[in-house]
């Protein structure tokens, strides 16, 4: 088997399984429905790993993703993205095959859907609890009631409850800030349940984000969680305190192709086309696209934030290093980059090489030897000197 010769997404299956087990156990201990978001991994193979932990219902972010996982045996799917009326034919086809939940956030969408939906679907109303992306504010009862009037009038619609993505936890400045944002979201959602529970006694409150699902303990009144990133974690989660370094399952393995001692920079084959341009802010206030793991005497070492992926073009990545760390890099080495945001890196790369040597396709990826050559993980980084 050939060794890695180009940017390759390395996935530690053991860490993934450990992360899934921890989140499934937490959901069970809190009496929560665990409906994980599959947009992070986008893989039928990885999706099967969740079944070992009793997962039977999933979340996706598009109709195409719902189609993909439905073809791979998942029959209870929530599309946690506002319904796109232009895809109604595909939605109708899916709804004939599986238990499908749709998301709405405005009256116009639900009015159009009611004219075109032909099969039974569950309907969630999206609530904006502070992320300010999509969803109706929890205090806008008039707007919520107008949507409910349309839902009630259509026999093919089953009102499931209220769903929110508390994505503003990603902007938190501390763990305490995450707790506060989560608790505020919980209070807003519980107020809705209290207001509508007489008419809809079985309505579900669904929250989805990895920081609060990982860190918070108070889910009083919440029925369902939908985290996704937790399976891999990344630098964003590490910086937020949602995980430890040992919980990060994903690495982008990149060849070193150049060194420039005059400016303490190392050039790698691995750019924006591979890792994305999502970034976090490092200790010096600079944009950090990834952090570096090197192999030193057989031990993997995470270099501190003074050694970081700081500049990207399409194929090139430039690592800025300290003078002391510069000599750890040699042309021809393989190094590992922990991405700022693993979801986007995975989406760009399209396939994985596991630490067990297994090649795993993602949704709509035609995997071949040209896209990601790899050997067993025991050969990784052994070229480092």
TrEMBL record:
Chain ranges passing through the membrane: none
One MF term in the entry's GO annotations: D-serine ammonia-lyase activity
Domain D-serine dehydratase-like, residue spans: 249-356
Listed SUPFAM superfamilies: PLP-binding barrel (SSF51419)
Keyword Lyase annotated: yes
GO biological process, one term: D-serine catabolic process
Keywords attached to this entry: Lyase
Lineage top rank: taxon: Bacteria
Family: Belongs to the DSD1 family.
Xref: PANTHER family: D-SERINE DEHYDRATASE, ZGC:162816-RELATED
Name of the protein described by the UniProt record: D-serine deaminase-like pyridoxal phosphate-dependent protein
Organism: Mangrovibacterium diazotrophicum
Taxonomic lineage: Bacteria, Pseudomonadati, Bacteroidota, Bacteroidia, Marinilabiliales
């Amino acid at each position: 088997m050939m060794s890695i010769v180009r940017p390759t997404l390395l996935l530690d299956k053991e860490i993934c399984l450990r992360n899934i087990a921890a989140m499934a156990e937490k959901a069970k201990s809190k009496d929560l429905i665990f409906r994980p978001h599959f947009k992070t991994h986008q893989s039928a193979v990885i999706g099967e790993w969740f079944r070992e932990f009793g997962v039977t219902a999933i979340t996706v972010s598009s109709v195409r993703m719902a189609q993909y996982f439905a073809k791979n045996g998942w029959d209870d799917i929530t599309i946690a993205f506002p319904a796109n009326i232009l895809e109604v034919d595909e939605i109708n086809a899916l709804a004939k095959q599986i238990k499908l939940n749709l998301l709405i956030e405005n009256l116009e969408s639900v009015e159009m859907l009611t004219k075109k939906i032909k099969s039974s679907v569950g309907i969630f109303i999206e609530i904006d609890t502070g992320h300010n992306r999509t969803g109706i504010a929890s205090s806008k009862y008039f707007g919520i009631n107008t949507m409910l009037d349309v839902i009630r009038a259509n026999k093919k619609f089953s009102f499931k409850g209220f769903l929110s993505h508390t994505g503003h936890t990603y902007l938190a400045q501390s763990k305490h800030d995450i707790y506060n944002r989560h608790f505020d979201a919980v209070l807003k959602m519980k107020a809705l349940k209290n207001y509508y529970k007489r008419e809809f006694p079985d309505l579900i409150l669904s929250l989805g984000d990895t920081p609060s699902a990982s860190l918070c303990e108070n889910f009083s009144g919440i029925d369902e969680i939908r985290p996704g990133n937790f399976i891999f974690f990344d630098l964003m989660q590490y910086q937020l305190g949602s995980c430890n370094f040992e919980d990060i399952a994903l690495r982008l393995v990149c060849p070193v192709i150049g060194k420039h001692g005059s400016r303490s920079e190392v050039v790698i084959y691995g750019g924006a086309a591979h890792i994305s341009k999502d970034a976090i802010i490092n200790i010096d206030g600079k944009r950090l696209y990834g952090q570096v793991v090197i192999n030193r005497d057989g031990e993997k070492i995470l270099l501190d934030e003074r050694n970081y992926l700081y500049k990207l073009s399409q194929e090139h990545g430039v690592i800025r290093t300290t003078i002391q760390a510069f000599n750890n890099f040699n042309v021809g080495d393989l190094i590992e980059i922990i991405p700022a945001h693993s979801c986007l890196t995975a989406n760009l790369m399209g396939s994985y090489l596991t630490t067990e040597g297994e090649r795993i396709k993602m949704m709509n990826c035609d995997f071949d030897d040209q896209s990601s050559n790899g050997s067993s993980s025991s050969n990784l980084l052994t070229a480092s000197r």
